[in-house]
Amino acid sequence: MKSTRYTGLIDKYRDFLPVNDSTKIISLNEGNTPLIRLQNLAQQWIGKDADIYVKYEGLNPTASFKDRGMTMAVTKAVEQGSRGIICASTGNTSAAAAAYAARAGIKAFVLIPEGKIAQGKLAQAMMYGAITLQIRGNFDEGMQIVKEVAESADVAIVNSINPYRLQGQKTAAFEIVEALGRAPDFHCLPVGNAGNISAYWMGYTEYQKHGFCGQLPTMVGYQAEHAAPFIHGEMIENPETIATAIRIGRPQSWDKAWQAVKGSQGWFDALSDDAILAAQRALAAYEGVFCEPASAASIAGVCRDLQSGKIPEGSKIVCTLTGHGLKDPGTAIDQCKDAKLMLVDAELEAVRKAILSNK
What we know:
CATH topology of the largest domain: Rossmann fold
Strand order of the largest sheet: 1-2-10-7-8-9
Shape: globular
Structural class: alpha/beta
Number of domains: 2
Distance between the termini: 54 Å
Largest sheet: 6 strands, mixed
Helix content: 40-55%
Strand content: 5-15%
């Protein structure tokens, strides 16, 4: 009997990816993440009836969507003879690169901005054994250095300028179409380096070409207001936001992202850090889904656009949650300082009294 065990997205979507029978696949069984229909958020938080789903990419092996692209990027790097990979990162890419390099038995070199990476992500990169270089600069400066290093060193760049990254990431669109039986009316994502919105559009258009979905979705990208080059229409210096994963001023997939938005008659918009954090709290409190701050930009944007009528009620909406909330525990804890953490005696009556006083 043929096994139906899930073995990773390259095996599942081999016919849509640039691999052949002799390719040695580097995989951690990534992909196949849940598409969760939200039951409470829209009605209880904004008073709207809405058909919203979240693609929970935080349940990939290193807890972010980056694993989809990294399985392809590292597979092709090994196939082409590279003994090492390199990336600049705000955190999630470094974690994924380090894990897949470890899996492949090659070296990973990651450049991260000093003091501007969430602790969960830094811990991952270090535990997976990456050579981790903190630079006195931001992601955009690190990205420029990575490009220059790769010109003279025998290492493969695994940032989203690597075309194989987007090939892997496009598979999330395939999974959404298969789960819904169609493409959503709107697909909403946080946007930093802009590879993900580009990859989803690639996936949807490929599936349409092969007759697997009909109408394409409207693509909507949300940025943090102080890290919003797509809103300004030009690259920006010194981006700032609490949502570290999208703290990028010079997106590497600039042209592809514009093509996705314009081709789908979508738009870009910006949100304050306060709005992003409020959405992160609401999603956890109303739905039991914990995502990193950057992910919550998609939720915050959708709820605002539903309230304004920019997204019509009754639309089928998918929001990509790019990473798990445990990626950035510090930011989560900071938001919960007013939460009740009660210290009581280890006695039945003391516990009973505490419970009854909070019913």
